User: Fold these one by one.
Assistant:
Number 1:
Amino acid sequence: MVFSRRRVLFFLSGALPAAVLGRAAHAGTEVKVSLWDKGATAMDMPEGMMPMGMAMSGAGMGAPTMGITVDIAEIPAGETTFKVINESQEFYHALVISPVEDQSSELPYIVDKMMVDEDAAGRTAVLKELRPRDFGSVTVDLQPGDYILYCNISGHYAMGMWTLIKVTG
């Protein structure tokens, strides 16, 4: 993996003491989120291969071509800031955070739109589309439980662009 100067600064920004950065200390947890894909062909699906997703029937596509990586997968309940970078050079990506009641159940999925039904799944937070190589953040008060972070741009979730986090009480 290549680390650009911009990416290194992004990840260091939350790791240095607030006094060094000249900003007030903040309460809560900070999670670094990377939205990534494998380039221009990331949306190409070989014929006959089913899209993948959390408990989607037919999942078995192999290695995902898009994804979300977090630096912390288990966090304490309370105020959490998700600092997000879109690592893509090609695609816009977004971030939706939804509670997960049962990890063995499928998320409500609109097949013809190739999107999760956010209204049916429930939304805890949304970070609108980020251009390639762009940054953003969203802060939310999380209760204990499991949550899924996913990109709900058409087809991205199905190509593997999701991850789970656990919020402990």
Note: The mean pLDDT is 83.
Number 2:
Amino acid sequence: MAAAFLVIGSIAALLAVALGAFGAHALKRKLSADMLAIFQTGVQYQMIHAIAILLIGGWWKQFGALALFSYAGWFFLAGILLFSGSLYALSLSGVRKLGAITPLGGLCFLAGWFCLVLAGLSIG
């Protein structure tokens, strides 16, 4: 599972860099300032949580196969898909109702961080 999280985190980070560049260059003149800011928020949260997934892969190797690491990694991936994905879709389509999905992704991020708190307490 460590290798899977290293691959998933790397792909998520790669996509965050690509999407950030796409937003800064290709979308700068096509989206309003508000929509571009929404898109960039998605990129920012995606990169932060891609790095967290990478760390989980490393911690898995160091501390062993704690189920809490696995839960955290999958919650972070779900958060990226729901939170960042909904922000990308909202900013590109202008359909504001897509923003209703964003809090579900935020809850996934929170659940992932809570799992890491518990993992830290269990290994400390």
Note: The CA atoms of residues 9 and 50 lie 5 Å apart.
Number 3:
Amino acid sequence: MLLKNYAVYGAFHALLAVASGAFGAHGLRNLLSEHMLSVYETGVRYHFYHAIGLVLIALAADRFGGGRSLLTAARMLHTGIFLFSGSLYALSLSGVTKLGMITPLGGLAFIVGWGLFAVALIRSKAH
């Protein structure tokens, strides 16, 4: 059941990523510098990638059985979205560059999450 929730979170994050991308393309194009718009777009791109990752993990849990590694992988991607994309959104909109110190923590959460996903798939007994 917990992993099903992550499919819902993934779908909701995908919705937010599309909305954020549209907001950036239409609402921020004339307000942010080219560099800050690029920072914002990087946040959107990684937000979307990892939203899809959450859905994939939930689908894999349904196919291969949920386990601790898959649940932790989903939690890491979910956390990474907030830390990585969230910090880039906040940095680009506020101009507070110290927020960039949070971004690598989100990147680390993404790396751990994908690694745990791989481990869970390798350990899976399903064909």
Note: The mean pLDDT is 93.
Number 4:
Amino acid sequence: MTEIARMEIRSLKEFYRLMAATREVRLEAVSAILDGGEPPVEAAESLENALAALRGLPHEDGKARLDLDGERTVLADLTYETTELDKDIVYFRQGEKALLDRLAEDHPALPEEVERLAEPLAGKRFTTFITDRDGTTNNYCGRYRSSVQSAYNAVFLTRFARARVDNPVFITSAPLSDFGILDVSVNPEHSFIYGASKGREFLDLSGNRRAYPVDPDKQALLDRLNAELTLLLERPGYERFGLIGSGLQFKFGQTTVARQDVTGSIPEEESRSFLKAVSGLVRQIDPDNENFRIEDTGLDIEIILTIEGEGGVKDFDKGDAIRYLTGELGIDMADGPHLVCGDTASDLPMLAAVREMCPKETACLLVTQKDDLARRTREACPQALIAPVPDVLVALCNRLAQEEE
């Protein structure tokens, strides 16, 4: 059993090592719970020690101060890390009912929301459950590298996948590994299909990796861009963008660099200035806009290699991911029902692709509190369900799994 001793941390590297250790503890505890047992006592003690280490950091304006290189420090909002550790400790120490009560403290309407959403999904077994991760099944974190999945989240989602789904699929813009979704996930192996880099690469249920083919000339341009971005982030004033949010991620067929995080730690003027610098770099390498497309989410700058589409070149989106991945896996998408979940406009092409293949038996659940996005989703899928926060969705999954049992 992996154990975390009481410790004091001060640097960003120590922080990331600590969060990686919590992943190992949670992974072992999740396996024990899903095998019908209880989480080891050492698991709760280890997470309590990790939480104490985070709370013991010096704070400034509500954020933890972490040493960067011996000379500079960074301020980090650790709300996600501390909150998820706290919820897992409640889960391990007091059980599932206490955890659900804890979730309801944060979201008082959670029990009613879960029952409302469960009604139209009751009794169904899904051919596919296709979902985004961050903001959909996972609460948002200020840094991808420390966004380790909580144990309760993994237990609830895996129960649902095993009980009610034939093909459970994550599709995320993060890389598959080094550093990617596999490095922050706590779900047991062979429980989910992981489509990463917006589905250009994936890991199937047997553990086999496959990838969408990339033109060698385009890959050479992407390699050049990655080298230039690395140099850009080494300049004074720009290094912080590699430390916040998604940081700098080299994905399969695309690159992501953060320009802001969910806590708004970067002044807007500086964030926009960085967006302008990155956009200028892309234009310098691809002046005719033939090879790259830029997607600005407001938090991340996604630089995506184009592919050939019906109307010419286009960026690879989650709709393309659905068509590629389901074809590779041999899933008969005409045979529903399907459940598609997301939280941003970038997930709508995913929904459209599934509905195109199975218009009558595709259900959709969007996690959002934005009226405009909810309206657009209902236009794409009239029977769309709306959840306010990810914890409502994962509690719903647990509720549906228990119904099957």
Note: The radius of gyration is 21 Å.
